[in-house]
């Protein structure tokens, strides 16, 4: 996430509802209606099934209590509004508590195609469909639990497993590449890029993932492909802190992306 942002958190009322205005509802409508055709074409069936179960509105920004009620019945998870920027410690702690932290603001029109920090479109449209699935929900919780036990110095290592699976993971479905990650579901340009011949596609491997650096402000040059979902769910049963220690011992791979230019 960026170190600073021009966005401010929207404050929920005592029942957890946020008063979005007509402009904000319009941005949500335009984002979701633009993205749905690509999502239906390129996203994995597990994501699409979750999207169907949540039945999000297209004419207004969804409310966290409504999404939480549906998730609660399915997997026991809930969504809680947070400021745009939260630390890794709080992030991992919330996942461990089966709570997904959702930035409460929605992007402005000038950031319609791309916003560096997560907004509620990314959080709700991108993330919550997979949280309807007990196995995916458990995987997210396992990463959170590992994060509550690891040293702060290991946060940046552990988060790579979340980044390259829940955020930007791919899966092979009937021989075809499909997108699984929330960052892909909510991006009009990176979704088709991720499954094209442009980036490198590597097999899902926990240690390899933990050693792979990334940047948040570019399309990923590398994606990890899950051939069997059992491989992903087995990662939730691993000793992830031992995996982080092994990745540290081996060291980071050389980045596949150019260095970020100074502002």
From TrEMBL:
InterPro entries: ArAA_hydroxylase, ArAA_hydroxylase_sf, Aro-AA_hydroxylase_C_sf, Aromatic-AA_hydroxylase_C, Phe-4-hydroxylase_mono. Keywords: Iron, Metal-binding, Monooxygenase, Oxidoreductase, Phenylalanine catabolism. Its cofactor is Fe(2+). Transmembrane segments: none annotated. SUPFAM superfamilies: Aromatic aminoacid monoxygenases, catalytic and oligomerization domains. GO terms for molecular function: phenylalanine 4-monooxygenase activity. Residues 1-263 form the Biopterin-dependent aromatic amino acid hydroxylase family profile domain. Its EC number is 1.14.16.1. Pathway: Amino-acid degradation; L-phenylalanine degradation; acetoacetate and fumarate from L-phenylalanine: step 1/6. The keyword Transport does not apply. This is phenylalanine 4-monooxygenase. It comes from Paracoccus spongiarum.
């Amino acid at each position: 996430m960026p170190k600073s942002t021009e966005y401010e958190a929207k404050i929920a009322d005592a029942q957890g509802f946020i008063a979005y205005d007509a402009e904000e509802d319009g941005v949500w409508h335009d984002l979701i209606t633009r993205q749905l055709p690509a999502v239906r074409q390129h996203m994995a069936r597990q994501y699409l099934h979750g999207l169907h179960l949540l039945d999000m509105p297209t004419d207004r920004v969804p409310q966290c209590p409504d999404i939480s009620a549906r998730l609660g019945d399915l997997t026991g998870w809930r969504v809680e509004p947070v400021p745009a920027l939260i630390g890794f410690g709080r992030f991992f702690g919330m996942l461990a508590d089966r709570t997904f932290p959702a930035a409460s603001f929605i992007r402005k029109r000038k950031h319609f195609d791309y916003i560096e920090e997560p907004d509620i479109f990314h959080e709700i449209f991108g993330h919550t469909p997979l949280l309807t699935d007990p196995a995916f929900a458990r995987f997210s919780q396992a990463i959170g639990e590992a994060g509550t036990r690891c040293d702060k110095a290991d946060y940046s290592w552990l988060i790579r497993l979340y980044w390259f699976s829940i955020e930007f993971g791919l899966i092979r479905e009937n021989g075809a590449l499909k997108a699984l990650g929330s960052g892909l579901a909510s991006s009009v340009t990176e979704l088709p890029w991720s499954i094209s011949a442009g980036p490198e596609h590597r097999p899902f491997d926990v240690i390899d993932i933990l050693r792979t650096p990334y940047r948040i402000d570019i399309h990923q040059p590398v994606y990890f492909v899950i051939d069997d979902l059992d491989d992903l769910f087995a990662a939730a049963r691993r000793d992830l802190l031992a995996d982080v220690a092994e990745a540290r011992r081996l060291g980071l791979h050389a980045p596949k992306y150019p260095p970020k230019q100074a502002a």
